[in-house]
């Protein structure tokens, strides 16, 4: 066989073989991977909206999705805002649970971050950061207490304590939360969050 | 005409009396006011940190000299003492001694000796040590205590720059007064607080021609221009150039650290670019970066360019480029 | 064609031709994922998997491939196995997969793997290639383990997540950050060279 | 069905395109390189010493293949290696005579006095520039430039302060000859019987004063073997090594300062 | 603004070499001389920019529409490899000196983590076309900056009494560590 | 009056007061002279005499063969005792003619020039200068006849007479300027005629105000276009390229000669020698030297015959002090160390200096202080050059201009690390020359 022809044939057939092999593997793992992703989101929603039994995606765009957490009756008991933005080093992705009027927060979960371990990474830490997000007043903008207050009682209802030594990460989270809350509020007003209209599942 | 042992050497046979140890000891002498100020403001903490850093630097240096089978007289050239002193001067007074010792070991080991010791290092050793500590122990390195003269008790205390950057000091009207910055009655690293003491030492070095005047001047000029432009545009948001010059590590950096001969360019043009570059990077970091202070990073960053600067700014030789 | 015994073929990967310490290959993943032992280990194993299977395939079909498309074919073969590894991790160990990020797909360009196909599998029998791949992988895993152990212990005070340093220990965060990675690897390399020098001069 | 079909087709097309690209590149863009260059290069010692006059072994290999030079011009290759290369290229190799570097000086620390306190750079060429650290203006300066120049570790500085050639290691690359600012090394065939261990052109009384082992131009050797040895410029010179009659060697070795004769034990490694 | 942020970040903050550890082999291998470092930097920048374009096209026109996510690795590497090979042969043909300067590292670009990493990161971050190109170009410049600085330092270190066991890769790694420290100063600048 | 100068340079201590006020004394010729056949820049002269020959004072004993060579003359009358290698103050032995003095000083040529020297043609002047073996006495010992023959395509505008004597300790040029200003100016006029220059500038440093005044006065009586310029006292004001820059703001191209900018520079001593050669046909067989330094008992300026051993000159000046440990021919900045007093005075010897050197400072690695860069009058980067040479990167050293170094020593003078920078430069230049020779071979 001529060399060039052999080159073409060999490569093409290796390509074909690999393609079919991968198709099989891809097929076998596809579901599981999708499931993993979905489960991650779902678990987060359940975490930030206690009492959730089932979930529903209400809105989606780049860097912002809103889910509804439903109770056994299927009524939406809170929103879970999935948003991301730039932190100290890299993107921070978080999930914030609120009540349906978007006036009180439920809980905050950090899904993905690459902040400095032991410093910015404390935003994933309940003790030093996440606890302050429970049950805050979010009818207006939430603000940061700097320097940090000694105890949670000292904080105003709409205040969050900074992490000492990681103001930037704290501010970044705050920024993401405030802007996505704002956005969501607008969506709600415009009626784009109607649970019936966009039933994904 | 008795002896038969004349000296054999190449010309010249006259030499200036200045020497490396003399230069180094002049720098140490120029640091005396700043050291005194640090002892005054931070008392025992300052003493402990200064002593442990200098001692650790000397021990580490001696260890490496021994390992490399180099003459031990280099230990007394004063450079390791300076590294120790300057490292200590740039540490927060509350830092524990163990961490200071780690920093000092790193300063000499990976900042200086791995490159071949005095004269060969690319980066400023004291700042390598400090950068190591800052990255290894960011919390300890940004925990500040008030100077002993303030007689207040607080758990957290911000430096003037931290105050400016993270606590909206201008808006809240709590910007540190320039007078305090000048005398040093503020929080901060051991040796950076008293601008007065630093200027004194810097002027001494300039007058003895130990340091290249272009470096402090270039840094001050470019920082003034950079911060000045923003300040003029929006004084509600940005602090004045004078504040930026007196606050933080700028003066100690401009007079004592950027001027380290080993890690700064040898050509005049290169020196200008280096100095202006440092000022601008400081401005960038202070105004827009994640840190309140950028002196250390900007000096290290520009250190990295020094070999390139030296190479591409070679002065024109007398008669070069003229047609023969 | 190699003339070593099977034992030597395996052992060489551990030290004499250790891909990381001696050949300076595959440094990117070595530096990137060794912040924690679990990541280093996972990466090592994933690489092992890819190395072994691609060596097997390459050495068994080496005769069929014209040398001009050699590299291209190897790449496809390697990429196939990398995809398998990547999908596997994503499906069954999602947290690790997330930690390793793009570095698992990057195994495809790990110099060790292509280098081995080029230098060894394309010239040796299936059996020898397998042993070689095992040896190299062992060397790689070893390097990852040493590096990540040092970095995790110093940088977080833990080993595989278990606290090993006392409460007095203040973690050196720098060790899990990029500068620490470079410096630690530099120091380890210096040690390796030093040991090598010692044993050589003794010989 | 599509789920399997699409990826297979995609990969097939990719492979096809890729191979077509390669074929194209292979045909149109390839730069020819003689495979022999690689081959010859592999046979060379890879010392990259440059003694052949080329920038390293690979450059030499290129030159050999192009016929610009001959295999035996590599001073480092042994006869075996040269033959191998020659065979590869199909040319015949000339016979190689093994040579060794020899030092023409016996001015040890003890024999040759210092001029004064030398405070310059510790290399021979630097010292030579200021007249040298030894009273003798012709002898070894002891700083070992030659030792550092030898790419084969075939030289070391003896306790007495002279460089010594380790015969097994010396490849006659000539680096030491080049390195010595006083030109004290020369390459001699390994079988060489007698050589002059001095290069001093000083008058007898002067050389006697500055070095115990210097040639004082007394002429004993020249008288013993006038066919091959003459005195010129205050120094004994062997004009033709081949003409030295072995029988006369004992006569020649009567040199009062031992500066001519056979190699001694201590001159060898 | 977003684009500027991506660009600056790729050069100074999330530098490919100093932050992501991608392309370490050429970073250590071709940084001995400034001139070759510079050519290598340019070659990488060039290839990175093209890669950004090509991988975006593949990803958005072929892989995503057909849900062929699992072919990402294979197709990226194949296309990149063939592309680089073409570039390499092209350079070899038109400029032998340039080819000589880059030596064996040109083929290494093919299997360079930086290139592949770029394609994967751009896909992972869901960049739009223009963003991806800016990201590719900026990352290439970041690589070039790092390797040139490194080469400058190493040329200087050729004239230093670096202890014997630390010469070469060891000191280069330590310098890279300190460089990474110095570049840390820019962290947080992009928000 | 404004003083001119050049950028960079240094101010070493001068110590000129040791001999500045001492008139030139003559040293009687020694019993034996050793006259090297190489006393100039270039190839050695070919010996014209053999062992046993009788020679007369001023008789030519060595013939300059090539263009870059100069003839050598006997400085005494007597008998040749040997022609072979002998130690030279330059460091390495060279072929030397040794002559015993018969004490008669019988001159070789009786005939005095009768023609007006200023009526000679340029070629005649050059011929006489060449015949007399005149070489530059400012240091480089460049054959003067060559300097007086500028190439056709490089017209000479200006002749500079170099009266700077910027080296510390030396005062021989100064004394000459005080004691023989007319001879110098006449020699200058001859050189001007030979080179076809239009103008003469005499450059004198402002630490020699007296010489400056005398010259300003004397020059009035000459009818050439001349000027006496005052220069700042700074080392190396006398270095040709810097002097030209200081006086004319012209830069001699790298690797070029003053010819290239229409200038010729001659030392004051050389000017006097030119006058004597042309007007009297007197060969260069004696010269004025300063014997000075804190290690000399009675420092003096003396007129000595070429070939006189240093020992005689030093003993005439009271001998060496006990603690002397450095002996130098030339100035302390550029001079060459000597290890014995047996070497002869040569045409290029401007002084014999001795002093007790302070204990040498320890050498430290270069701390990159940049002082060498700030002080190099050639605007080189000495520290980098030294490193390139040390680590044997000759092509980089060449690119950075090691060959433009004039070895003035400013860099090493100021270096706090006590690095033998000039030594490195010299090693570097030497290695480059060797490499070039090897390549062309
Ligand atoms: C190596 C290093 C990593 C850091 N990482 C973070 C981080 O992840 N998040 C953060 O907010 N600040 C981080 N910082 C600190 C910031 O630069 C800055 O000093 C801090 O945000 C100021 O906050 P404070 O006012 O609470 O001290 C880091 C500092 C260093 C030296
Ligand atoms: C010479 C010098 C350089 C310094 N460089 C830095 C620096 O680059 N980054 C930094 O965070 N602190 C640096 N410091 C410490 C700061 O001046 C200041 O004390 C501290 O950064 C303020 O803390 P904050 O970061 O919490 O605001 C430096 C101090 C000195 C004396
Ligand atoms: C550093 C240096 C210093 C010099 N100083 C003098 C000097 O002071 N006086 C002088 O006549 N020549 C001095 N020269 C020599 C001059 O450059 C030049 O060669 C000389 O004046 C030419 O005249 P000549 O050929 O008559 O000697 C010096 C040269 C150098 C390199
Ligand atoms: C003006 C001057 C400034 C110096 N600054 C520093 C410094 O900032 N950090 C340091 O470690 N050493 C400093 N040194 C000491 C010394 O130069 C330094 O340790 C060298 O970098 C070691 O090779 C300084 C020395 C001088 C003369
Ligand atoms: S340098 Fe001299 S001793 Fe060494 S191998 Fe070459 S010829 Fe022999
Ligand atoms: S180079 Fe020459 S002078 Fe120097 S040690 Fe060797 S033989 Fe002696
Ligand atoms: S480098 Fe040469 S010209 Fe420059 S100061 Fe030094 S000796 Fe003088
Ligand atoms: S003066 Fe000396 S120490 Fe300073 S830069 Fe020059 S060589 Fe280095
Ligand atoms: S492993 Fe990253 S470039 Fe080699």
- Strand % of chain D is 5-15%
- C-alpha termini separation of chain D: 81 Å
List the bound ligands. flavin mononucleotide, riboflavin, iron/sulfur cluster, FE2/S2 (inorganic) cluster
Characterize the largest beta sheet of chain B: strand count, sense, and whether it forms a barrel.
none
Order of the strands making up the biggest sheet of chain D = 1-5
Name the average pLDDT of chain D. Answer: 83
Q: Main β-sheet of chain D, in a few words?
A: 2 strands, antiparallel
The helix/strand class of chain B is mainly alpha
Strand content of chain B: under 5%
Spans of at least 5 consecutive residues with low confidence of chain D: none
State the distance separating the first and last CA atoms of chain B.
Answer: 49 Å
State the oligomer.
Answer: heterohexamer
Percent of residues in helices of chain D comes to 25-40%
Note down, in words, how this protein is organized.
The complex is a heterohexamer of chains A (201), B (324), C (203), D (269), E (191) and F (441). Chain A has 201 residues and is of the alpha+beta class. Chain A is built from two helices and seven strands, in the order αβββββββα. In chain A, β2 and β3 form a beta hairpin. Chain A starts with a helix and ends in a 12-residue tail after the last helix. The model of chain A is unreliable at 197-201 (pLDDT under 50). With 203 residues, chain C is mainly alpha-helical. Chain C has a domain at 7-146. Chain C has a two-stranded antiparallel sheet with strand order 1-2. The longest helix of chain C is centred in the last third of the chain and has 31 residues, at 126-156. Chain C is globular, with a radius of gyration of 18 Å. Chain D is of the alpha+beta class. A two-stranded antiparallel sheet of chain D has the order 1-5. In chain D, a hairpin with a 5-residue loop joins β3 (155-157) and β4. Chain D is built from ten helices and nine strands. Chain D is elongated. Chain D starts with a helix and ends in a 7-residue tail after the last strand. Helix content of chain D is 33%, strand content 12%. Chain E has helices at residues 2-13, 24-29, 34-63, 72-94, 96-102, 105-110, 113-124, 129-157, 169-183. Chain E has 191 residues and is mainly α. In chain E, α3 runs parallel beside α7 and α3 (34-63) runs antiparallel to α8. Chain E is globular and about 60 Å long. Classes of the chains: A alpha+beta (201), B mainly alpha (324), C mainly alpha (203), D alpha+beta (269), E mainly alpha (191), F alpha/beta (441). β1 (7-8) of chain B pairs parallel with β2 of chain D. One iron/sulfur cluster binds at residues 366-372, 382-383, 414-417, 419, 421 of chain F. Residues 103, 124, 140-146, 163, 179-180, 182, 184 of chain D line the site of one iron/sulfur cluster (SF4).
């Amino acid at each position: 066989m001529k060399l060039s022809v052999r080159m073409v044939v060999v490569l093409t057939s290796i390509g074909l073989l690999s393609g079919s092999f991968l198709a099989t593997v891809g097929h076998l793992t596809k579901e599981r991977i999708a499931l993993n992703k979905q489960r991650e989101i779902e678990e987060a929603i359940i975490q930030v909206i206690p009492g959730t039994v089932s979930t529903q995606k209400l809105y989606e765009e780049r860097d912002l999705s809103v889910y509804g957490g439903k109770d056994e009756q299927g009524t939406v008991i809170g929103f879970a805002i999935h948003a991301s933005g730039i932190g100290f080093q890299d993107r921070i992705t978080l999930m914030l649970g609120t009540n349906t009027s978007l006036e009180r927060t439920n809980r905050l979960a950090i899904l993905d971050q690459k902040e400095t371990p032991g410093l910015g990474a404390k935003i994933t830490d309940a003790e030093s950061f996440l606890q302050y997000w429970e049950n805050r007043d979010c009818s207006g903008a939430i603000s940061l207490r700097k320097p940090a207050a000694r105890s949670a009682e000292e904080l105003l209802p709409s205040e969050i304590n900074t992490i000492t030594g990681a103001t930037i990460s704290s501010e970044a989270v705050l920024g993401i939360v405030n802007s996505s809350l704002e956005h969501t509020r607008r969506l709600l007003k415009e009626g784009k969050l109607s649970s019936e209209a966009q039933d994904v599942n | 005409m008795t002896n038969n042992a004349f000296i054999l050497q190449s010309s010249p046979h006259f030499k200036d009396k200045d020497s490396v140890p003399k230069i180094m000891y002049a720098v140490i002498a120029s640091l005396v006011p700043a050291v005194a100020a640090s002892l005054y403001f931070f008392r025992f903490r300052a003493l402990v940190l200064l002593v442990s850093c200098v001692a650790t630097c000397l021990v580490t240096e001696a260890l490496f000299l021994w390992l490399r089978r180099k003459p031990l007289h280099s230990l007394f050239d004063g450079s390791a003492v300076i590294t120790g002193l300057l490292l200590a001067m740039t540490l927060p007074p509350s830092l524990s001694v163990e961490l200071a010792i780690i920093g000092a070991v790193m300063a000499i080991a990976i900042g200086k000796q791995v490159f071949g010791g005095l004269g060969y290092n690319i980066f400023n050793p004291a700042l390598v040590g400090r950068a190591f500590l800052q990255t290894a122990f960011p919390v300890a390195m940004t925990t500040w205590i008030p100077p002993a003269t303030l007689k207040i008790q607080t758990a957290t205390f911000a430096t003037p720059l931290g105050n400016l950057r993270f606590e909206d000091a201008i808006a809240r009207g709590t910007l540190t007064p320039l007078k305090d910055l000048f005398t040093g009655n503020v929080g901060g690293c051991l040796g950076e607080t008293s601008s007065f003491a630093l200027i004194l030492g810097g002027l001494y070095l300039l007058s003895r021609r130990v340091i290249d005047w272009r470096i402090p001047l270039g840094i001050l000029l470019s920082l003034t221009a950079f911060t000045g432009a923003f300040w003029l545009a929006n004084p509600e948001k940005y602090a004045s150039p004078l504040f930026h010059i007196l606050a933080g590590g700028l003066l100690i950096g401009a007079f004592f650290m950027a001027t380290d001969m080993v890690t700064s360019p040898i050509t005049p043009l290169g020196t200008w670019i280096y100095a202006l570059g440092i000022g601008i990077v400081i401005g960038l970091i202070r105004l827009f970066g994640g840190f309140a202070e950028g002196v250390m990073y900007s000096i290290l960053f520009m250190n990295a360019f020094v070999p390139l600067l030296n190479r591409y700014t070679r002065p024109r030789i007398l008669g070069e480029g003229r047609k023969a | 064609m190699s003339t070593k015994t099977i034992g030597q073929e395996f052992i060489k990967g551990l030290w004499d031709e250790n891909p990381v310490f001696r050949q300076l290959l595959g440094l990117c993943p070595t530096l990137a994922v060794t912040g924690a032992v679990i990541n280093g280990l996972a990466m090592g194993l994933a690489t092992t998997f890819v190395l072994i299977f691609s060596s097997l395939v390459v050495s068994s079909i080496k005769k069929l491939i014209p040398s001009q498309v050699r590299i291209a074919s190897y790449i496809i073969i390697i990429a196939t196995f990398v995809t398998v590894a990547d999908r596997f991790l994503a499906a069954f160990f999602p947290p690790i997969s997330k930690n390793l990020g793009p570095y698992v797909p990057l195994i495809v360009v790990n110099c060790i793997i292509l280098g081995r196909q080029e230098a060894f599998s394309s010239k040796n029998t299936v059996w020898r290639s397998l042993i070689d791949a095992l040896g190299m992988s062992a060397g790689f895993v070893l390097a990852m383990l040493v590096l990540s152990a040092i970095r995790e212990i110093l940088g977080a005070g833990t080993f595989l997540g278990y606290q090993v340093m006392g409460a007095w220990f203040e973690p050196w965060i720098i060790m899990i950050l990029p500068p620490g990675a470079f410096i630690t690897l530099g120091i380890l390399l210096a040690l390796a060279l030093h040991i090598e020098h010692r044993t050589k001069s003794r010989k | 069905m599509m789920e399997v079909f699409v990826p297979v087709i995609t990969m097939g097309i990719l492979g096809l395109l890729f191979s077509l690209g390669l074929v194209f590149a292979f045909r149109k863009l390839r730069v020819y390189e003689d495979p022999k260059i690689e081959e010859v290069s592999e046979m060379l010692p890879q010392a990259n010493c440059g003694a052949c006059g080329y920038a390293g072994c690979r450059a030499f290999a290129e030159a050999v293949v192009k016929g610009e030079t001959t295999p035996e011009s590599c001073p480092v290759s042994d006869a075996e290696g040269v033959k191998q290369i020659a065979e590869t290229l199909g040319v015949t190799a000339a016979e190689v005579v093994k040579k060794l570097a020899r030092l023409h000086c016996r001015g040890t620390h003890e024999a040759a006095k210092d001029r004064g306190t030398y405070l310059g750079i510790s290399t021979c060429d630097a010292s030579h520039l200021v007249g040298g650290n030894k009273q003798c203006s012709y002898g070894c300066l002891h700083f070992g430039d030659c030792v550092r120049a030898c790419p084969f570790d075939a030289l070391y500085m003896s306790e007495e302060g002279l460089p010594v050639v380790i015969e097994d290691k010396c490849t006659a690359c000539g680096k030491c000859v080049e390195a010595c600012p006083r030109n004290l090394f020369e390459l001699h065939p390994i079988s060489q019987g007698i050589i002059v261990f001095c290069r001093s052109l000083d008058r007898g009384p002067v050389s006697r004063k500055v070095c115990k082992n210097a040639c004082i131009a007394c002429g004993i050797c020249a008288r013993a073997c006038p066919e091959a040895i003459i005195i010129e410029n205050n120094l004994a010179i062997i004009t033709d090594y081949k003409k030295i009659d072995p029988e006369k060697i004992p006569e020649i070795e009567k040199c009062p300062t031992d500066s001519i004769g056979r190699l001694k034990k201590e001159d060898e490694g | 603004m977003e684009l500027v942020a991506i660009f600056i970040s790729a050069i100074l903050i999330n530098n490919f070499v100093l932050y992501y550890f991608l392309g370490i082999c050429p970073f250590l291998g071709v940084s001995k001389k400034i001139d070759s470092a510079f050519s290598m930097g340019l070659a990488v920048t060039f290839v990175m920019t093209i890669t950004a374009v090509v991988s975006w096209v593949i990803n958005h026109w072929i892989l995503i529409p057909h849900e062929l996510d699992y072919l990402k690795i294979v197709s990226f590497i194949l296309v990149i490899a063939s592309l680089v090979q073409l570039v390499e042969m092209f350079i070899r043909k038109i400029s032998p000196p340039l080819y000589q300067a880059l030596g064996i590292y040109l083929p290494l670009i093919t299997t360079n983590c930086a290139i592949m990493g770029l394609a994967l990161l751009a896909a992972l971050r869901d960049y739009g076309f223009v963003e991806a190109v800016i990201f590719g170009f900026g990352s290439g410049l970041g690589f070039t900056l790092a390797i040139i600085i490194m080469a400058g330092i190493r040329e200087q270190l050729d004239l230093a009494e670096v202890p014997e066991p630390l010469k070469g890769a060891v000191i280069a790694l330590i310098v890279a560590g300190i460089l990474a420290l110095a570049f840390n100063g820019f962290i947080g600048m992009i928000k | 009056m404004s003083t001119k100068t050049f950028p960079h340079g240094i101010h070493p201590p001068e110590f000129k007061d040791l001999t500045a006020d001492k008139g030139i004394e003559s040293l009687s010729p020694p019993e034996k002279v050793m006259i090297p056949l190489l006393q100039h820049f270039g190839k050695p002269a070919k010996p014209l005499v053999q062992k046993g020959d009788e020679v007369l004072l001023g008789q030519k004993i060595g013939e300059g063969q090539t263009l870059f060579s100069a003839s050598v003359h006997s400085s005494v009358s007597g008998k040749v005792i040997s022609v072979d290698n002998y130690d030279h103050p330059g460091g390495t032995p060279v072929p030397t003619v040794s002559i015993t003095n018969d004490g008669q000083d019988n001159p070789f040529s009786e005939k005095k020039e009768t023609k007006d020297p200023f009526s000679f043609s340029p070629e005649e002047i050059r011929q006489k200068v060449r015949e007399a073996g005149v070489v530059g006495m400012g240091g480089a010992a460049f054959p003067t006849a060559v300097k007086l023959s500028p190439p056709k395509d490089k017209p000479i505008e200006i002749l500079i007479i170099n009266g700077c004597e910027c080296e510390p300790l030396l005062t021989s040029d100064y004394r000459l300027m005080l004691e023989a200003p007319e001879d110098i100016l006449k020699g200058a006029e001859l050189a001007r005629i030979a080179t076809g220059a239009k103008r003469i500038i005499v450059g004198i440093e402002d630490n020699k105000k007296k010489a400056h005044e005398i010259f300003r006065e004397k020059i009035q009586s000459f009818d050439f276009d001349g000027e006496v310029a005052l220069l700042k006292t700074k080392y190396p004001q006398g270095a040709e390229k810097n002097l030209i820059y200081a006086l004319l703001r012209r830069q001699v191209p790298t690797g070029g000669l003053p010819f290239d900018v229409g200038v010729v520079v001659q030392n004051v001593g050389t000017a006097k020698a030119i006058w004597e050669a042309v007007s009297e046909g007197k060969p260069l067989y004696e010269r004025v030297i300063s014997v000075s330094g804190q290690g000399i008992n009675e420092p003096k300026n003396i007129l000595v015959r070429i070939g006189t051993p240093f020992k005689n000159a030093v003993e005439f000046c009271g001998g060496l002090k006990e603690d002397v440990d450095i002996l130098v021919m030339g100035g302390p900045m550029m001079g060459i160390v000597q290890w014995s007093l047996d070497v002869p005075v040569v045409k290029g010897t401007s002084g014999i200096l001795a002093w007790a050197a302070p204990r040498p400072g320890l050498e430290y690695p270069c701390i990159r202080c940049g002082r060498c860069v700030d002080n190099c009058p050639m605007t080189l980067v000495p520290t980098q050059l030294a490193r390139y040479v040390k680590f044997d990167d000759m092509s980089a050293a060449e690119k950075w201009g090691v060959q433009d170094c004039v070895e003035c020593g400013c860099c090493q003078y100021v270096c706090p690390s006590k690095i033998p920078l000039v030594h490195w430069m010299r090693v570097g230049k030497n290695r480059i020359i060797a490499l070039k020779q090897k390549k062309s071979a």
